[in-house]
Amino acid sequence: METEKKIRIKKFFYGVAVFIILLNLVFTKRNIVGKDVNNYLATFNKIDGVSVGTDVVISGIKVGEVKEIFIKENYPQISINVSKNIEISDDSSVSIQTDGLFGKKFLLIEIGGNNVYLKNGEKFSFSEDSIVIEELLGKIILIGEKNKGL
Fold first, then answer.
1. If you placed Cys at 81, which of 1, 37, 130, 141 could pair as Cys (CB 3.0 to 4.6 Å)?
2. Residue 55 — φ and ψ, nearest 5°?
3. What confidence tens digit (pLDDT) does each residue in 33-71 have?
4. Mean pLDDT throughout 119-139?
5. Hey, which bits of the chain come out as E strands?
């Protein structure tokens, strides 16, 4: 009877330990931090839908995330962390894209052709703003109304 009680107590503590480990895995934020990243800056006019933690991708592969968003000289600035092993040429561009029609936003880096690479802390020369769906639909409706009159 006593060994059965010890076994139940052991199972209880194993269960609690596994629960704590799983809970930790669920709530641990997956940030790219430390010495394994380079930080780059990009200036935009509009960054609708982008927030800290937004994915940064190259050719559909996640290579980093948004570290910080702030305003400098009345324009939104985005600070992004990218894996250090990714070389980004100085003529590369960064744009805000949407995953599908109403999906989440992400930053897409289009690698340029130069053999000169951005250094840690440097800024992208080219950036493309977020497209706001309402504005796009408004333009489509306007074109449709113009064509209706023809």
1. 37
2. -65, 145
3. 456 899 999 999 988 889 999 999 999 899 999 999 999
4. 82
5. 37-43, 55-58, 61-72, 75-83, 93-98, 105-110, 126-128
